[in-house]
Amino acid sequence: MLDRRVTARCALLCLLLVAAFAASGCSPGRVRGQHEALLKAAAGPPRLRAQLIRVLAQDPSWSTTGLRMSGDVLFESTDQRGRDALRVRDPQNGRELNRFDYPTSELVDGIAVVGDRIWQLGSNEPVAIERDRNTLAETRRVPYHGGGGALCYDGSRLVVSDGDFRHLTFRDPQTFRQLGRVDIRTGDQLIGLDCADGQVWANVLNTDRILRIDPRNGQVTAGVDASGVGPPGDRSNGLSQITAVPGTDQFLLAPYTGSHLYQVRFAPA
Predict the structure, then answer these.
(1) Which residue among 8, 79, 234, 260 is least crowded, i.e. fewest CB within 10 A of its CB?
(2) 14: helix, coil or strand?
(3) How large is the average pLDDT for residues 210-220?
């Protein structure tokens, strides 16, 4: 239901449009079309809700700062008592398949999987770290301007949320060179990203909200309420990460700290 003030504002605008179109000879059908467009704009982007499909085990002693599912394995940037790591796990049973432990002085966040390589973002300095997907061995580091915490790969470009969390920067997946940038048309701060079906999905900092963003113009095209997924006490500081489940219309959601991952589907609210 639209707020009464918004409805009244739309009604006033429509009266003005009717008068203008009548003076110019426009048809009533066109006036109705303008009226519907105004109501749609006032209502904002579509609202979705997360439907829980299943719950997966998660070690609550690790904090999740990056998450990416590729094939049938899960890559995680994690922190455990001040020691960051890149972990590879079986999402079905939580079993750890591989792990690289960073020095205590180094912090890492977002992950993108590009073929046989992995990109990770350093969070205490603006550097992108490239690793071999199979061995997790580091192959190179690329310093870059602007910093950022969240990262995904859309099939042709890397998408990075800038250090201020209010821009998306597009980068070459081979060189990490900047290709472009778009403003995000929202005041929310974004902490996790995933690229799926031509859209960017983003967790809103310290909340259970998720935004769907059109990377062409930065417009928010949908908002997701995931507050009903699992018991609120099971997670701290909201949901911090999102990744699509390959071959499905589903996603995995991770809290910053908590004992579960949530596999969900998004449906109209």
Answers:
(1) 8
(2) helix
(3) 94
